[in-house]
Write a structure and sequence with these properties.
The complex is a heterodimer of chains A (629) and B (95).
Chain A lengths: L25 E6 L6 H9 L3 E3 L10 E6 L5 E6 L11 H11 L10 E7 L3 H4 L3 H6 L4 E6 L1 H6 L6 H8 L3 E3 L8 H9 L16 H14 L9 H10 L4 H19 L1 H22 L4 H18 L2 H17 L1 H15 L7 H6 L4 H7 L6 H10 L8 H12 L12 H25 L11 E3 L8 H34 L15 H13 L6 H9 L6 H12 L8 H8 L2 H13 L4 H11 L3 H24 L2
Parallel strand pairs in A: 1-4, 1-5, 5-6, 6-7
Antiparallel strand pairs in A: 2-3, 3-4
Chain B lengths: L11 E3 L8 E7 L3 H9 L7 E7 L6 E5 L2 E5 L1 H4 L2 E5 L10
Classes of the chains: A alpha/beta (629), B alpha+beta (95).
């Protein structure tokens, strides 16, 4: 995936450019402990003007966005990874530390810091204020979740707090959009360096905590009562019996809905492409250009875009689970399984985000302090079923499996098959982890720490923003990588010309390429058309759909049939299962390979990974093709 | 294990021995400096009051309430946190 779903910028490094503003634009860093609501605030401040940025050459990408001030000036905002302190223990914290201290040559040193703290847990969160204020950079202390504080009977005197810290303080609710004026005011004003009354010895945690407690009580901080609903919900979600049942129900419901609820939308899109394709074919004069447009672009790009609703449903669920706080409980329930394969709970979050895309997942392994655990997680992450596999799976499943009920009305055969493929990827990851952790990546254990956030209602704004982002990335990929591959393929399918006309598809360059590969993939039950698809899917997995769409569109035998029917012609049931298994295991993703190389600092691990996954894919597909007839 | 057979005032034990609803005061962390530091940043400071909460099925890991947050620890880590059991916290253990 070259511009992947979740990849906060992968292969190509781009410098963030801020639009010209009357005054020189300010660069401001957004820092804070994990779970302080940083990202929500970031979304509030920057709205849709976010840039997923990649700071060149380095290890980190941060979200960077532009906040527009009331007077029209633009301020660049860097969203840093969550921090517990400025004494870095993980690579993630190292990066945040280096950005804040201006030790990175490639990132402009922030001219100001927005320090986001959770006002419902101020005494502990204030600890981070000490090292941040000690940097001497103008800082606005943002006490987030003001609505929670108020509703649960907490209190803080911001003026007193400001006097103690020698820096402005704003009480904000990023979720409700409350108190943002003060943030904009700070960004627009001349910002003085902080002048705290006293600072503790920074390396002494107990002294820092005592200082934070003192500052809190000077500002007459009264913590809110514990959230009632969190206790109540946890007694269900973490119940020894009900907990795992809820976990299973949530997982099944997600898969069932992806299949059922997305179908009408997908049918609508498919219809739209059909009708518009016919219209284009009827309107334009017969020419090479029309053929490229209809056979290449429409059937190629169109067949991928159709899957947008499913991808969006997946991210809708991930977003709800994450924002509500349930994800942390799921991680807790899953930890035992992780421990059994020798991984730690911290690997769970990257592995879970690998269900969206392996690239951000691999980047998020930076939070794992132990290098061997981190490498093991990187190596198994691409086994998790990423969003790019989803269209391939659903296409093949829908073509070969009639939708019978499996568990009454709760689970259909197609959803069950899809779930099975997700489990298969997970098992491959788990077994591989076990092997790695008991051989080349053996290591001692580091303590597992997982903070349980309070349950919160996900907001429409935050989830909507994420879906918008996702849709943008998906469509951009369809419009760039997939379009390009389809056009190249179309050209290859039309060369060499015979008497000025396109050759029969199997005699073309593309056909020749597929045929060269055919002897190798024949044992798996694949013909040369699938072979061409396998080659193009190296760019990004879902490209195979566009490729097959285009090939079938150009083939006179099948151009009247839809993609599912054409596939039924070309694949036996055994071949279909083999293709599914091949996609479950193979590392067909250039972006992932690139990011593994970068994160592990060489070609050794990505080559090992690519070979291992390839062998597994081939072997698995081979067995499937011979067992199922 | 339970509060019944401990000495009247306090007793040294580890976080693992706490059952749901038990409270204890942290005495020290028996872990290498780096790991101990991270725990301290999350509120596990000597003298801090810790209450045991829910756990994953099978009792591992368990959520602990400390310094206003809920943090989950595995048994292997909880075992390294030496605590003084807070007898007053257990309803049935009241003298």
């Amino acid at each position: 995936m070259s511009e992947c779903s979740d990849c906060h910028g992968c292969g190509a490094a781009t410098v963030v450019e801020f639009p010209d503003a009357p005054a020189s634009p300010k660069i401001v860093a957004l820092a804070g402990p994990p779970n302080s609501g940083k990202t929500t605030l970031f979304n509030r401040l920057t709205g849709l003007r976010q840039k997923v940025a990649n700071f060149p050459g380095v290890t980190v990408e941060q979200h960077t966005g532009i906040a527009e001030l009331p007077d029209g000036r633009a301020v660049g905002i860097i969203d840093l990874p969550g921090l517990y302190s400025l004494s870095p223990q993980s690579e993630d914290e190292q990066v945040a530390h280096d950005v804040l201290t201006g030790e990175r040559s490639d990132t402009p040193r922030p001219e100001a810091i927005l320090l986001v703290l959770d006002s419902t847990n101020l005494s502990r969160h204030l600890m981070l204020a000490a090292p941040i204020l000690a940097l001497g950079v103008p800082t606005l202390i943002i006490l987030n979740m003001a609505d929670d504080l108020r509703n649960r009977g907490g209190h803080v005197d911001t003026r007193q707090l400001s006097a103690q810290l020698g820096a402005p303080v704003a009480l904000v609710s990023a979720r409700q959009g409350e108190g943002l004026d003060e943030v904009f005011e700070f960004l627009a004003s001349a910002m003085p360096a902080p002048a705290p009354k006293e600072l503790p010895v920074l390396h002494d945690v107990p002294k820092c905590r005592a200082w934070a407690g003192r500052v809190g009580s000077q500002a007459s901080y009264r913590p809110p009562v514990p959230p009632k609903w969190t206790r109540r919900l946890d007694s269900v979600f973490l119940h020894p019996v009900a907990g795992p049942v809820v976990f299973a129900v949530v997982v099944v419901a997600v898969f069932q809905t992806i299949f059922t609820a997305a179908v009408p939308l997908m049918d609508g899109l498919r219809w739209l492409f059909e009708v518009s394709g016919k219209w284009v074919a009827a309107t334009l004069p017969d020419s090479i250009f029309r053929s490229l447009l209809v056979e290449g672009v429409w059937s190629g790009v169109g067949s991928v875009v159709v899957f947008l609703p499913q991808v969006l449903f997946l991210f809708l669920f991930i977003g709800i689970l994450e924002d509500s706080g349930y994800l942390a409980r799921a991680a807790l329930i899953a930890d035992r399984t992780m421990a059994r394969v020798g991984l730690q709970g911290k690997s769970f979050i990257p592995l879970l985000s690998a269900y969206a895309c392996a690239v951000p997942a691999i980047l998020s392994t930076r939070t794992i302090e132990n290098k061997r655990d981190r490498f093991a997680t990187i190596l198994i992450a691409p086994f998790m079923t990423c969003a790019a596999r989803l269209p391939v799976y659903t296409l093949i499943i829908a073509a070969f499996l009639p939708n019978r009920p499996v568990l009454g009305p709760f689970l259909g055969a197609r959803a069950a098959a899809l779930l099975g493929l997700y489990v298969l990827g997970f098992l491959a990851a788990v077994v591989t982890a076990r092997v790695l952790k008991s051989s080349i990546l053996k290591s001692g254990r580091t303590p597992f720490l997982l903070e349980m956030p309070s349950y919160r209602w996900p907001t429409l704004q935050s989830i909507g923003l994420r879906l918008f982002d996702r849709a943008k990335v998906f469509l951009r990929r369809a419009g760039t990588v997939i379009l390009l591959v389809t056009v190249v393929l179309w050209i290859m399918a039309h060369l060499p010309a015979v008497n000025g006309k396109a050759p029969a598809i199997e005699d073309s360059l593309a056909g020749a390429l597929g045929r060269t590969l055919e002897p190798v993939i024949k044992p798996l039950g694949f013909n040369w058309k699938i072979g061409v698809g396998l080659i193009t899917s190296l760019a990004a997995r879902e490209t195979i759909i566009g490729t097959l769409g285009a090939i079938y569109g150009m083939d006179p035998e099948s151009h009247k049939l839809d993609l599912q029917k054409s596939l039924q012609h070309d694949l036996t049931p055994g071949g279909a299962v083999a293709l599914l298994i091949f996609f479950a295991f193979a590392m067909q993703c250039i972006s992932t390979i690139a990011v593994v190389r970068r994160e592990t600092g060489g070609w050794k691990w990505p080559i090992l990974q690519f070979t291992y996954m390839g062998v597994l894919a081939y072997a698995g597909a081979f067995v499937a093709a011979h067992l199922i007839r | 294990m339970s509060g019944n057979n401990v000495q009247p005032e306090t007793s040294f034990t580890t976080l693992v021995d706490l059952r749901r609803g038990d409270a204890a005061t942290l005495d020290h962390i028996d872990l290498p400096g780096k790991d101990a530091r991270r725990l301290m940043e999350l509120g596990f400071l000597p003298g801090a009051r810790i209450t045991a909460g829910h756990s994953a099925p099978g009792g591992d890991p368990r959520v602990f309430q400390v310094d206003g947050s809920e943090i989950a620890l595995r048994r292997e880590t909880a075992r390294r946190l030496k605590v003084r059991l807070d007898r007053t916290s257990r309803a049935s253990g009241m003298p």
